[in-house]
Amino acid sequence: MTKSFDKAIYTKGLEKSRGSIMSRIRSVFGTRKAIDPEDLEDIEDILIQADVGITYTTRIIEDLKKTSARTDVWSEEGLKSFLARWIAGAVGGIVQENIEILGKPPDVESTLPHVLLMVGVNGTGKTTSIGKLAKIFRNRGQKVMVVAGDTYRAAAAEQLEVWAQRSGALYHRGQDGGDPAAVVHDALNKALAKKVNTVLVDTAGRLHTKKPLMKELGKISTVASRVIDGAPHEVILVLDATTGQNALIQARTFTEVVGVTGIILTKMDGSARGGILVPIAGELGLPVRYVGMGEGIEDLVPFDPEAYAQALVG
Ligand SMILES: Nc1nc2c(ncn2[C@@H]2O[C@H](COP(=O)(O)OP(=O)(O)OP(=O)(O)O)[C@@H](O)[C@H]2O)c(=O)[nH]1
Ligand SMILES: [Mg+2]
Fold first, then answer.
1. If I label 198, which of 32, 62, 70, 213 is the partner at 20 to 30 A Cα–Cα?
2. Alpha-carbon 235 to chain mean position
């Protein structure tokens, strides 16, 4: 487990979410010291508005009722601690054991690069997250290569090149408008020759509803596996926290098409609806690897379920 980051970054990053959940819960209390079962509908609305989703909100409320026989959940403190524990449990588990898999350096014997493919709809933060990850892996002493697999959007390759320079990563690009699978093919051969530890492949943003574009991701994967055994070793779906429930729909579709292995949730700092991780981690069983808390190169932190839940609830 990576625990070396400052937990305060969660509190700061989730200020908007926390403000929204807690201020609203407080207004349910009004001047009272405790709420009662009649107020549960209001609590339900607040959780749904924080994007926890209907399924999980219903479960929380049911558990809340059950727990209330044994524990005080009607005071502000009691309710807060119940919610924080519940949410940490829902997004935890899978996360804890898997966090180090992302960007795992190959063992000493192996010279094979570890290949990560970043996918997601337009503008979620794929390229930015690649830059931040490249920096994290460089800090661990790895040789990193970033690959401009987005050959569609004007200036996408240049944007990635800037991140390569900032992070000290090697950089590979093909021709604008070229076949991304061909770019990845060449890049991976180069990565093999240069004994790169981790390769981060950027892809063009694509709507999960566009079938041909989704199929293209499959082709990139196939080509990658022909060059390096088992590549891509991870397919990271980058989701934007500010898109709310739509992020869940994207997660379902991408998972069906490309076998997503983990999630990066970006723009937590700009979202009043940080609860979306509860249905994503819970329903899809996908580990959340990192969370984006800003636009800077240091603003990507390993996901910590407890810090997240505490910051979300208050
Ligand atoms: N506040 C905030 N902004 C972010 C975060 N991650 C990315 N961004 C911003 O989101 C915008 C889009 O980021 P990109 O990395 O270009 O997104 P992308 O997914 O590569 O976009 P396409 O390649 O067009 O699909 C940029 O302005 C980033 O600075 C984050 O965690 N917090
Ligand atoms: Mg991009």
1. 213
2. 12
Q: Is 290 helix (H, G, I), strand (E, B) or coil?
A: strand
Residue carrying the six token digits 């934007």:
240
| Greatest alpha-carbon span in the chain | 68
- As beta bridge partners, residue 290 has 264, 302
pLDDT of residue 165: 98
What does the alpha-carbon distance between residue 306 and residue 312 come to, in Å, rounded to a whole number?
10
- Asked whether the beta carbons of 225 and 231 are under 8 A apart, the reply is yes
Strand partners, 144: 198
User: Which residue among 127, 128, 290 is best mutated to probe the pocket of ligand 1, counting the most ligand atoms within 8 A of its Cβ?
Assistant: 128
Beta-bridge mates of residue 234: 116
Q: How far is the CA of 215 from the centre of ligand 1 (A)?
A: 23
- The total number of residues shown for the chain amounts to 314
CATH architecture of the domain formed by 102-260: 3-Layer(aba) Sandwich (3.40)
Convert the pLDDT of each residue in 167-186 to its tens digit. 999 999 999 899 999 999 99
Ligand 1: lining residues by beta carbon, under 6 Å: 120, 122-128, 150, 153, 156, 205, 238, 266-267, 269-270, 292-295, 299
Indicate whether this model's pTM tops 0.85: yes
Q: Which of the 8 DSSP states describes residue 275?
A: G
Q: CA of 42: how far to CAs of 46, 62, 186, in Å?
A: 6, 14, 56
> Which residues of the chain, if any, have pLDDT below 50?
1-4, 94-99, 106, 108
Residues sharing a CB contact under 8 Å with residue 29, sequence separation 6 or more, in sequence order: 35, 76
pLDDT tens for each residue of 97-138:
444 555 555 454 567 899 999 999 999 999 999 999 999 999
Closest CA to 99 of 14, 3, 169, 7: 3
**The tokens 């979300």 sit on which residue?**
312
Q: Which residues contact 69 (CB under 8 A, 6 or more apart)?
A: none
